[in-house]
Amino acid sequence: MNGLGDPAGLARRGRVRRRRQPYAASGSVLAVPLRPRKIRRHRRSVASRMAALSAQTLPPSDDSSDSRLEAAADGPGAGDVLAELNRIASSRRRAARLFEWLIAPMPPEHFYRRLWEREAVLVRRQDHAYYRGLFSTADLDSVLRHEDVQFGQHLDAARYVRGRRETLNPPGRALPAAAWSLYQAGCSLRLLCPQAFSHTVWQFLAVLQEQFGSMAGSNVYLTPPNSQGFAPHYDDIEAFVLQLEGRKLWRVYRPRDSSEELALTSSPNFSQEDLGEPVLQTVLEPGDLLYFPRGFIHQAECQDGSHSLHLTLSTYQRNTWGDFLEAVLPLAVQAAIEENVEFRRGLPRDFMDYMGAQHSDSKDPRRTAFMEKVRVLVARLGHFAPVDAVADQRAKDFIHDSLPPVLTDRERALSVHGLPIRWEAGKPVNVGAQLTTETEVHMLQDGIARLVGEGGHLFLYYTVENSRVYHLEEPKYLEIDPQQADAMELLLRSYPEFVRVGDLPCDSVEDQLSLATMLYDKGLLLTKAPLTVN
Ligand SMILES: [Fe+2]
Q1: pLDDT, tens digit, for every residue of 239-280?
Q2: Closest CA to 139 of 77, 196, 217
Q3: pLDDT tens digit string along 42-100?
Q4: Looking at residues 372-385, what average pLDDT do you find?
Q5: Where do the TM regions start and end (predicted)?
Q6: What's the whole-model pTM score?
Q7: 441 and 499 in contact (C-beta within 8 Å)?
């Protein structure tokens, strides 16, 4: 389930019918990470719920440090939490709140410290309404009817029969007649990039990408009863599986060797003979969450008379130390060669006499000296590593990868989108609202823009004009005058605190106003009070 980099339009979700209590206050949810070992219960009633657990987890291994069976209370449903986000002013806090809800009742700090990139985790909630309002089969039907969904580009029809995977995509648009006929014939339907078609999935991912600091993508999978859509495989992303409807049997396997651990590329399809014993085997029910790191092989099938609909949230594709160093080290070598004569001295004339594979067993002391010289020079590279510059380039790439922000009502009202200018009675009215030095402003959201120096110029890259389809748009940026760099940095750093335009560190009032106006007009700034026409 490769969730990243896939294209896709629009759907409105219904509201949840009932409002749940915040999970810290009441209710019960079972979280069953790998190899369950009960560590605590928040409520006595959890015991009986545990007895009813249909999850089968395999016997505990000797590594039980990360095994958990936790219980807590109901959290709000997807519709509730997305509505709640609209009332949280800070985008950072929105991102933290949504992730907290996603993995509730597990505390986020526990998840990141003990389980992230390490273990498969099952959160069993016994709350079929937990994801209501996020995405449904009815939404998929609506998307097929109303959006230009193309087979192969946006939707895959596939089945896995007798150990073989078949993709049965006809050419052209995935109209309901074709898609549902394939489903009826036993094909799973995979909607790539539902965020392009669904406003709620877009909001869900756009908020979470700020939590991860990495692109967040998704796929939706609809599987008919008694079928399996995809062969066993592992992916190159951290995967969160949200069971939206129906039931599905999942089997998850640890990486088979160290080379598959935290894999940077997805695997080919495996046969059943390639697999060992699953580390987690469970039937996901609506409201449940399954997480597994990249490199964990997985397969899933519908067993009974029920269909299954799940959404896979994916993130952290190629976001590793290795990827960072791949960018840093060539630049560090280049800088070292320019700045340090040691890197420009010639190699020993005779080094080929004792170095190379044919001499690898040699005890020649010149070989030892050569290796030591390499180690010393590599260690010195750290002094020349342009770490901040590479971090800026990765941040710039993340800005380009990002979904455009979903604005809260407040952000819409207080940004350029809320200006009362409009066409009325044959002419534009309410024209001319302007910022002044007394206007208080902050960035629209945290993480929507990044200041990057390139080729002696300063550019502000931003997400607000990105497409909901991955990289459909080129990177968007504004050039920032060096005289306004300090002011720009202050605005980026001070979020969510307001700054008076007249307090921006510029040489002149003109510079203050031109920077603030440029950002406001692009939809990058928010004012403390609505702008009015003088
Ligand atoms: Fe997958």
Answers
A1: 999 999 999 999 999 999 999 999 999 999 999 999 999 999
A2: 196
A3: 333 333 333 233 333 333 333 333 433 333 445 688 999 999 999 999 999 999 999 99
A4: 97
A5: none
A6: 0.85
A7: yes
pLDDT of residue 389: 95
What is the residue-wise DSSP string for 450-494? EEEEETTEEEEEESTT--SSTT-S--EEEEE-GGGHHHHHHHHHH
Q: How far apart are CA 191 and CA 362, in angstroms?
A: 58
CA of 287 relative to ligand 1 center, distance in Å: 19
Ligand 1 center from residue 34 Cα (angstroms): 19
Q: Does 334 have pLDDT greater than 50?
A: yes
> H or E stretch including 249?
strand 248-253
- CB contact at 8 A, 230 and 299: yes
Q: Residue 432 and residue 501: Cα distance in Å, rounded? A: 18
Helices (H) and strands (E) in the chain, counts: 13, 22
497 CA distance to ligand 1 middle (Å): 41
193 sits in the region (left: phi over 0; alpha: psi -120 to 50; else beta) called left
